[in-house]
Amino acid sequence: MKRWLVKSDPEEYAAGDLERDGRATWDGVSNALAQQHLRAMSVGDGVLVYHTGKEKAVVAEARVAGPPVPDPTNQGGKLVVVELAFMRWLPRAVPLAEIKADPAFDDFALVRIGRLSVMPVTIAQWNRILKLTKV
């Protein structure tokens, strides 16, 4: 099982919307590297949901519920989408400032590549974020 982080603008589609819907097609991703990460996702992979904008925090956990498939709205056929299923709210949101201040995340794409909307998360990073939610 791989682990990922997806970013979402809560004004557009928040983790609360994913919770309400139960499952959602994760679309709107056009960056080539983010698309590469979507293509690497497998059903059952863990996903952290990060809110951008004013909040800037990891807030929830989801799972990949459907394999990458061609984005039906993309006429060029190069983009893919995945289905995500809401799992749970984190006990405490982990703000970006806290992540940036922690040396354990020095090589985390969330810190290094701020505009990337889909990124891998190492097991160590995943476990550290979950540990930070319990503080």
Task: Provide structural commentary.
- The protein is built from five helices and six strands.
- The protein is of the alpha+beta class and 135 residues long.
- A six-stranded mixed sheet has the order 2-5-4-3-1-6.
- A hairpin with a 5-residue loop joins strand 3 and strand 4 (57-70).
- The longest helix is centred in the C-terminal third of the chain and has 10 residues, at 123-132.
- The relative contact order is 0.23.
- The model has no long low-confidence stretch (mean pLDDT 96).
SS element count, helices: 5
Largest sheet: 6 strands, mixed
Order of helices and strands: EHEHEEEHHEH
Question: Using only CA atoms, what is the Rg?
Answer: 14 Å
Total E-strand runs: 6
Main structural class: alpha+beta
User: Which bin fits the share of residues in helices?
Assistant: 25-40%
Look at the structure and give the mean pLDDT: 96
Topology diagram in text:
Layout: E1 3-8, H1 15-21, E2 23-26, H2 32-39, E3 46-51, E4 57-70, E5 80-95, H3 96-101, H4 109-112, E6 118-120, H5 123-132
Parallel strand pairs: 1-3
Antiparallel strand pairs: 1-6, 2-5, 3-4, 4-5
Brief description of this entry?
With 135 residues, the chain is α+β, with helices and mostly antiparallel strands. It has a six-stranded mixed beta sheet.
List keywords for this structure.
six-stranded mixed beta sheet; alpha+beta
